[in-house]
Amino acid sequence: MKPTFEATSAGLEIIDPIERRRYQLQTPRAVSPEPVEEHGIPFPVGTAAQIVTREIVLPTMNRVLVRNEEGLMKAEVQSDDHAYFPHETYNLDISGSLKVYAHITSSVYIYSEDEQTHISFDGETQCLIGARSFHRRPADTITTTAEPTDVMEAVSAFSSALKTTSAERSYPTLRGHPPKLEVGNQLVIPDTLTELETGIEIVVPPELRDIFVVTPLSYYLGAAIRSGSEPQIVTKSGYTYSLCGPDGFENTVKRVLKHIFVLDCVVRTEGPTPLPLYRRKAIEPLLEFDLEEMYSRPLHEQVQVYLEVDSATIEEYYPDWRLEAQVNPVDETIEFLPFLADELAIISIDDGTETPEPAKETVEAIDTFTRADFVRSASPVRGNQETPIADSNSTEHPPQPTITQVWQSIHGTNINSTTPISAYYNRIGRTPRPDPIEIEVVCNDAEMQDELESVNGFYGTHNRLPFNVSVHYDLTTTELENTLATESDFFHYIGHIDAEGFQCSDGKFDASTMDTVGVEAFLLNACQSHDQGLHLIEAGGIGGIVTLGDVVNSGAVKMGSIIAQLLNGGFPLYAALDLARVENIIGQQYLIAGDGRATIAQSETAMPDICLVRKEQDGYEFNIVAYGEVRSSNGGVFTPDIDSIENYYTIPSKTGWFPTDLSQLQEFFNVGRFPILFENQLYWSDAIAVDDR
Description:
Blueprint: E1 4-8, E2 11-16, E3 21-26, E4 34-35, E5 47-58, E6 64-67, E7 73-77, E8 83-93, E9 99-113, E10 116-132, E11 141-144, H1 148-156, E12 180-183, E13 200-204, H2 208-221, E14 224-227, E15 232-235, E16 240-242, H3 249-267, H4 278-283, H5 291-295, H6 299-307, H7 311-314, E17 323-327, H8 337-342, E18 346-349, H9 360-372, E19 402-407, E20 415-420, H10 421-428, E21 437-443, H11 449-456, E22 467-473, H12 477-485, E23 488-494, E24 497-498, E25 501-504, E26 507-509, E27 519-525, H13 530-538, E28 543-547, H14 553-568, H15 573-580, E29 590-594, E30 609-616, E31 619-626, E32 637-638, E33 649-650, E34 653-654, E35 658-660, H16 662-669, E36 675-678, E37 681-684
């Protein structure tokens, strides 16, 4: 379902009913959006509407990209700047929680005031507003056998999803979702899918494990995968590049993907959007080729030149790839490939190597906490009575194939997610709902009401999103089942769980008995909740935060409170858990079930990020870390709204440390509400005075 336009008393609201995003544009007087088919916007949009107004006011202080009629960038107006443009036809990129363009013929004056950005025209002007959802889904389905040569052909057809072969395909919006894969009796590639002819092939032995590893690289390069004994890249000019480097096949493929990707990000600045990219300023002096000339070359020639650049000279500028995927080299993994390619995940083969034991210090710290407080397992603790398992007419569900998502942490231990294939199917198959965000909070133990009182003050406190928050106490098994079956965006459970299920007032409820749930994302803040979380994913959920072992109540209360704030602030699951782990050792007991990119709200700033602050002898330093999510994945750009930074940075990435002073920091903190990590403590920008610390 495409974005919709709704007139409001203050102007216009654009609603993405799939990703559950809203974007409000204010106008001086009421407007009546009229749908249009022909809009003149030279970029893909899902839907467009025409309004008549003399001004558009954006909800925050935004940077505006001013483009000409053909879409070439004329100027970038910073959020703290102002600019006037004479009467012409313009395409203004005013994107926020959705991709939004304004197509107008008028003079334009852009300025910021009262924490909003104003775009004024020369009187009442026809304004075409085009919007596009950041939601991505496959355009078609390929059937393949499990024979490696057929899988090669199927993955080669992923290139049909690329919207360009230029360096701009490093922008996530110009990479479409690869087609789905289904395993059947014969290879069938629909006629609707046209494989690109890029002049690049990737040669690997006809083994599933090798095909899996090169799948994201093949997709990104639009390269056909061919069978051969020596893994290598081959171009139509006869150039070859070995994928068996000194650090092994998997690591070489990883390095090549990052290497080509970062050089594409640099070269694309010679295109229609010449933003001042930090990596260009850092890398260009190290290159022996001209960027403008390289931009116009065909892809296979670009790749050849890129691969002749010594990786050691630029590897420090590779993007911080957040997601790696560990997969088994078996037939059941084939269906995961389009989703991993879409995320440009680094794929490694899991040969059953044992997971390393946690550090001794971590184990001892957790043990100390556990002895000091009661835990949240469903076994009788602190006076709880043993309760029977609820009767069930369920049948055993066959286990689904899974992979392990490995999310890179900003502070140490990576975050693992057990991800069934259903998590991906549930994500792309989300039911459009224009209603408010629905959050269900369940507290099934009176001794844990501290957490309920804490999180109840956070959910729904979003400035630009309508929420419905329902709170439930001491549910029976039937009531809990009904709550899980009801459509909701987020389910927060506070109570006890063990191998037999959720503890309820009349017994235990096992989520494996449900064929369908309405919950999309969840936090099961109880002991041993991992398996119950997987059952929710298999029955319709997308992702959730769960635990593997026992968690102590005091630590769980703090974790629940922090995670609730971060999710309400627009952070995806993996990022919320990453930050919640910073100051709570019990956080090491938590992990993710399903897709770690799931979110429940949109960020109040341009994207979910955290500001790291440290005190130095002569002042302070800050470092902005951007987390990728559905609208800002690999290759997107961000720039912090702070005077000392003029560059853009690729996502996912960090700015590096910059010197600053208190007044500049405080001004930055006033831009919006976002988390700050200062002296290993997590704060929020609207509730911190750094000089008092």
